Amino acid sequence: MKRTPRVAATAIGLFLTAATATAQGIAPAKPAPLTPMDYIEIRQLVSRYAFAVDTGSNNGYDYADLFSADGEFMRPYARGREQLAALARGTRLGPNNTVHYIMNHVIEPTPDGAVGKEYLIELNWDIAPTGGGQRGTGPINGWDVIGRKAGELARTGGHYEDVYVKTPVGWRFKKRDFIPSRSGADPAPLPPPRVPANAAAVTTAAPLPAAANFIPPTQQSSLTPLDYLEMASATVLGFLVFGTVPGPATWGGMALIVASGLYIIRRERAA
What we know:
Layout: H1 4-25, H2 36-55, H3 61-64, E1 67-73, E2 78-79, H4 81-88, E3 100-110, E4 113-124, E5 152-167, E6 170-180, H5 220-242, H6 248-270
Helix pairs in contact: 5-6
């Protein structure tokens, strides 16, 4: 009976050692694979960003609704729907304003969603021919700028670094940071963003609104039967133009295609 404490201590020690070894051997979480539709929706999200920030549509809320409920833009810092909408408001906006050109989009999956980066170039087109080359002195006549350079490169250029999260209403920005372009092998790190002292608290309880003018892409399963209609139409045209009568194998294949198409339509409606 006197050995009981020593045996218990030994057992506890062996258990802790095994637990530590197991924890050290745990591999990091693997990124969840992204579907082709995920890539399409993320690219659509980034494309809508440029339109929303240039136009300031819906008083800035079309821009804000591209972010998650606690989403944030880092420089200048804004977090939450109201602050993001305020960031998107400005004087040089409108349905025809075109400034942000975003390209070279790279998307990588992560365990929590996805990350991405893109180049950004800003072009200032709103320059009057006699306005001294200052942005915002327009409007201008589009015919006056044909055949010559009328726009100018803005001082802003660099790339975005994004964190995407999938929400019940689709993919949204969790975080977006702008990194100005700098030359050199090892540029100095950027200072941390300045968070306003009076930044309001953000609640994630309210459901996210759907992005403005967003139409979900058609599922590939709904498009595939339309591709196979080419076979049926070719058969009909062959009979009408050349008098070719389909054989049993052709009729069987068409019947299979029609049956699979009807099944997919029924399944999509049931979902």
